[in-house]
Design a protein that fits this description.
The complex is a heterodimer.
Chain A lengths: L1 H6 L16 H4 L35 H12 L22 H7 L2 H4 L11 H18 L3 E3 L5 H18 L8 E5 L5 H8 L3 E5 L9 H7 L4 E7 L11 H10 L3 E5 L19 E3 L20 E3 L1 H4 L6 E5 L2 E5 L17 H37 L4 E2 L9 E4 L11 H6 L6 E2 L9 E3 L7 H19 L3 H6 L11 H6 L9
Parallel strand pairs in A: 2-3, 2-4, 4-5, 5-6
Antiparallel strand pairs in A: 1-7, 6-7, 8-9, 10-11, 11-13, 12-13
Chain B lengths: L7 H11 L28 H13 L22 H7 L2 H4 L11 H18 L3 E2 L6 H16 L3 E4 L5 H12 L4 E4 L18 E7 L11 H9 L3 E6 L18 E5 L15 E5 L11 E6 L5 E6 L5 H4 L12 H38 L5 E2 L7 E5 L4 H10 L6 E2 H4 L9 E5 L6 H14 L1
Classes of the chains: A alpha/beta, B alpha/beta.
Chain lengths: 496, 446
Amino acid sequence: MTANTQHHPTFTGNKALQIEEALSFEIGGLDRTGVDFPPAEDRADRLGGLGRDSDIGLPGLSEPETMRHFVRLSQKNYAIDMGPFPLGSCTMKHNPRLNEKIARLPGFADLHPLAPQSCVQGALELIDTLADWLKQLTGMPAVAMSPKAGAHGELCGMMAIKAAIEARGEGAKRTRVLAPESAHGTNPATAVQCGFTVEAIPADATGRVDLAALKEKLGDDVAAIMVTNPNTCGLFERDIRAIADAVHDAGGYFYCDGANFNAIAGKVKPGDLGVDAMHINLHKTFSTPHGGGGPGAGPTVLAASLAEFAPVPFVERRDGDYHLVETPGAKSFGRLTAFHGQMGMFTRALAYMMSHGIDGVRQVAEDAVLNANYVLARLKVEMTPAFDGYCMHEALFDDRFLKDTGVEIAKAMIDEGYHPMTMYFPLVVHGAMLIEPTESESKRELDLFCGALLSLAKRAKAGATEAFKAAPVYAPRRRLDETAAARKPVLRWTPA
Amino acid sequence: MRYLPLNDADRRAMLKTIGAGKIDELFADVPDDALNASFDLPNHAGELEVERALGAMAAKNRAAGDGPFFIGGGAYKHHIPATVDHIIQRSEFLTAYTPYQPEIAQGTLQYLFEFQTQVSALSGMEVANASMYDGSTGCAEAALMARRITKRTKAVLSGGLHPHYGAVTRTNLELLEDEVVTAPVDVSASEDLAAMIDDDTACVIVQTPDVFGNIRDLAPIAEAAHAKGALLIAVVTEAVSLGGLKSPGEMGADIFVGEGQSLGNGLGFGGPYVGLFATRQKYLRQMPGRLCGETTDVDGKRGFVLTLSTREQHIRRDKATSNICTNSGLCVLAFTIHMTLLGQAGLRQLALLNHQAACKTADALAAINGVEVINKAYFNEFTLRLPKSASDVVEKLAVQGVLAGVPGGRLWPGDPGADNLLIVAASECTTDADIEAFAAKLRGAL
């Protein structure tokens, strides 16, 4: 195929439905526009002499050109609506279109965040209803709704913990945060953004927190631990309660990274496990779309001991009316964002929760875990699971089965029509391959997927090294030179 | 359950392959008494039922399009071309992940590259990132970036900065025990910020048009900041103004932070929005967030990748420039499509129409006895001083179908000086009939 395309180039560079597309700036013109406006009036401006005289330098496109430009671009993307997207830790599940429809109702979509509260009672009711679902599902008494994504939720939880520690007069003393080596990169980054130092907790041989090592590191200078549960190896932390007890005994807090809450929602309440704060990625667990990198939403549930430190704004129900509290109380740590959080994600998430109901949310967790274990069972014939035993919602493999072939399977999966799994994460496993099928895949789809991966594994072991190095050959682009991109960054178009 | 492909026969067969007797064997690591907790929540519901319940909540709200509408204050009502919402709902954009596998994510990567180009051009800066959550969080990130660059720990916030932006920035900086000096509320753009900048100052943060709608000349502040080795962070909450006003880059800003909601993104009760973030080339490696860069593939074809990731949390962990990961992908796309349709010609016209709508509105309201327009220079938003509490007036007008603006008491609760202030925004959506209705009801309410 590679040889073919090289020997028979097309005039346009297109290959049937695979159509090359220039940058919009190379298509349009500075005098063109795809929007019709009425003429302006001839009147003096009141811009105080600060009007823009300089060229902006952005060409415009007519509407048909714009439509074609972006439709062509869209066709260069892989998406969950096209096939399995087994990125471990990312939870690429089906995004129901009812969610989109609800989010676009003018009463939500065309609503100003600073409209008088008497005009937004339905919106506040929606936020309060979603908050109630989240509190119930987690068994936690409070939730801060304003964090804009998972990492922002981490910041929210850690800010609340910092405020609580300072309120105890221990701000100067408790400066250390502990997080497993397998943690998402956001965890240590968040802790540092809050002014803490971070130390790694080693993993034990089963891929879980080494409780004895954790206990050794605990002391009266520890502010918190940040632990993902189920963890990034796709395993439930067996000692979760002992971990919580140990950190509490040492006077610290337990921040749980809730990125993997989808594995246990409707089955287990994190509040029953000793968690003090946990963010929930609505764009993972509750099906709001990932949108090519956002927007997300990261509401953060808080234990009673942290609730009073929560940020503004928040919704309160009093005398049958909803009130948006925007002035921080004495203990609140402040404000995380200009307005009230990701309302557009709240509407979508609540539509999803109500559709599934509690029986469905439980079934989602069970199916997600079932699908992951099915993949684990089918693939372990040729591939090497990183740890023994069942997994939760994602199956982790290492690269022992590839021996020292140096082969990377990911790019070959692209040619098979799949988005690759998460590669080289978590860091505690050599050559990690983390597969999260989610509950959205049928058995038939999983069988095909496993068949493809088994075939690749066999070919890799058989020494087809060169073919793997060449992959992908069927994608809109072949391997891209990331080193060159970083060495001499070109981050914008400039006119020739 | 309509979202779940497995049926019970599938589940039994799969359990058999796995070698488990029942599903809870897979949850064996969960403490027994925590497994299968009970919940007081309803069971599943059909599409119709969900639509009915949530539609009823939506119907209780007064949408901006329901009548004369003049609220701004960091979020603006604009007309969004139908093309925008059609494209962003395409599955390939809506249901894609962050473009970590660039060979099958060129669609996302190319629009990020186009977005970065647009933001650079609009702001007059050299490099822009692929977005922040929104303008306010971008503002805090800019302050943190200035702190890294200057190795200083004091920030000076203009009294014309949106108070919520100020609060977000303070919340972030005070965690690190930095000094944050906030100038007094400055309705008439008369503060002397230069006098507040000293040798310890990392950054001075100024918004233009400011929260009261005043257009600010940033050039003298940039000069004063640079004289002390501090950086100027320019904040723009109304992206359309970038089509009509001198760019932050032209006026000497070091970091530009913007709220991009006005282009392509609806009001949405405050989010999701799209934070614009740009700076000078020399500060590139201190930027937060994702960057998309141009490169070539092994066949020599142009392509795009996420680049300079060694600044980011998934690589650098505790040494990262920010913890941001997921940002505003789809809102970026909406912005990019709208901006592509407009081009500079369309954006200039849109800006002009916005300005003229505000001028007309201001003239109609200034003619009312006891109403004073405070601003000398403004874009599409201005501030009135009323003879009575603006909050009361806003409530009264809301009942009569006019959403009049942001009362000072909403943004500066407890500040009696702000009580009678009403911040009013107009846009291309504002009609002469809207202005007449507003003026008539306001006259009646005073």
